[in-house]
Design brief:
Order of helices and strands: HHHHHHHHHHHHHHHH
Radius of gyration: 21 Å
Number of strands: 0
Largest sheet: none
Helix content: 55-70%
Oligomer: single chain
Structural class: mainly alpha
Length: about 400
């Protein structure tokens, strides 16, 4: 999630809607991770910290108190949320590339994404997953933890995998601009016509997404992650994220105030249809996916489930964009505050999520109450940490913000 300063009061309705959307997205991210310990379906394999299948990478803490409603919420967010984040990140690539030129843009991306990723996986993520080690460790000391961490066949990324994949896609954009300078403007011209022929745009987006996602989902299953190396990757999804990233690049090259993202455009006007399509496609994907988990599904069911994922992902992205463009085009002090600090919140929140879930393990509370405590505590502690970090020049540089940007917002 790329950092952006708060919008001036003269900002366009589209710019304000996108700023508000960034605030909404970071709240969803925090809520999503806060719920993970309380999902009903989480398999308890009994494996330790250093034994496959390394469940703690996805679920560092597994609580005995569960709530099935969280399964439904998290399943929906898992379908579309990361694709939406890549799309939003792509929107501002072309204006920045034009302004800073290739080498300047590349240097900026390495500093804004590569440096925080390196710091995060070296410091933040080890601090975050220590409770997962303590749950099953014979030696819960820090030295024992460090020894076990270094002995793993991979280095945990937590949610920070997003940063290295976003950096890689930015590098691809720079390379594309160097090799074919007219390619991104051409994509922008094609994207600019999307509001006049939305059906064609969506059909092309779905077709390309199917080609990017389905073959890899068939080859690796939709759930498989890497078990080696420094960079975490879910095998079937990076090309799909690339599709949505470059969809954002194209719309950004056309200009966000016109076309699909216009506050009075076709997407905003048809927000109800977009929301209905999102729910219908989600239910279809959930139903087909449930059939694949029954042991021996009928032939073709897995393929149908993989195919249904694509429209559910696209519809989820479009529906949230549509709702924000239709109803959130005004200035919001709270969402502006969250938007301007979204990058910092994303970088540090996982530490507080996992430690709060760990602290609540023995508490005889309902899952909904626990998740609410984790979410509220994570939000407050992450904001305080972001404020403290940005108070120092090195911290502001790490997060990509001016010193004391929190206070200024």
């Amino acid at each position: 999630m790329r950092h952006s300063h708060s919008m001036p009061r003269s900002a366009s309705a589209t710019s304000l809607a996108l700023a508000n959307l960034r605030g909404v997205v970071i709240l969803i991210v925090l809520a999503f991770h806060s719920m993970l310990a309380y999902l009903k379906w989480i398999p308890v394999t009994g494996s330790g910290f250093d034994s496959p299948p390394y469940d703690w990478r996805a679920f560092p803490i597994i609580d005995s108190h569960r709530f099935f409603g969280f399964d439904l919420i998290c399943a929906w967010q898992d379908v579309y949320l990361m694709a939406l984040m890549f799309f939003l990140s792509g929107l501002f690539v072309w204006p920045s590339l034009v302004r800073k030129k290739d080498l300047g843009f590349l240097r900026d991306r390495v500093l804004r994404l590569g440096l925080p990723f390196a710091f995060g996986v070296a410091v933040v993520i080890p601090a975050a997953v220590y409770p997962a080690y303590r749950l099953s460790a014979a030696d819960p000391s820090l030295s024992g933890y460090w020894h076990s961490l270094l002995a793993l066949p991979f280095w945990p990324n937590g949610p920070l995998w997003f940063l290295w994949q976003l950096l890689a896609l930015n590098l691809v954009a720079v390379g594309l601009h160097l090799v074919a300078p007219n390619s991104i403007p051409a994509l922008g011209r094609w994207s600019a016509a999307a509001d006049k022929n939305l059906a064609r745009y969506v059909a092309v987006l779905l077709a390309v997404s199917i080609l990017a996602y389905v073959p890899l989902a068939i080859a690796f299953t939709p759930w498989a992650w890497s078990n080696s190396g420094l960079f975490a990757v879910q095998f079937c999804r990076p090309p799909l994220y690339g599709v949505f990233f470059f969809a954002g690049v194209g719309i950004g090259a056309a200009g966000i105030e016109r076309g699909l993202l216009a506050a009075d455009g076709v997407v905003a006007r048809h927000w109800g249809y977009a929301l209905a399509a999102a729910f219908a496609s989600l239910l279809l994907w959930m139903g087909l996916t449930a059939l694949t988990m029954t042991g021996a599904p009928a032939p073709g069911v897995a393929l149908a489930a993989d195919l249904s994922f694509v429209p559910a992902c696209a519809a989820g992205c479009i529906s949230l964009l549509a709702v924000c463009l239709r109803f959130m085009t005004g200035h919001s002090r709270l969402l502006s505050y969250l938007s301007v600090n979204a990058y910092g919140l994303y970088l540090v929140h996982y530490v507080f999520v996992v430690w709060l879930q760990y602290a609540l393990l023995a508490m005889p509370l309902f899952a909904i109450v626990k998740a609410g405590i984790v979410f509220g505590g994570t939000l407050v502690l992450s904001l305080l940490t972001t404020f403290a970090v940005q108070s120092f020049p090195w911290g502001a540089r790490l997060i990509g913000a001016a010193p004391r940007a929190v206070a200024a917002s």
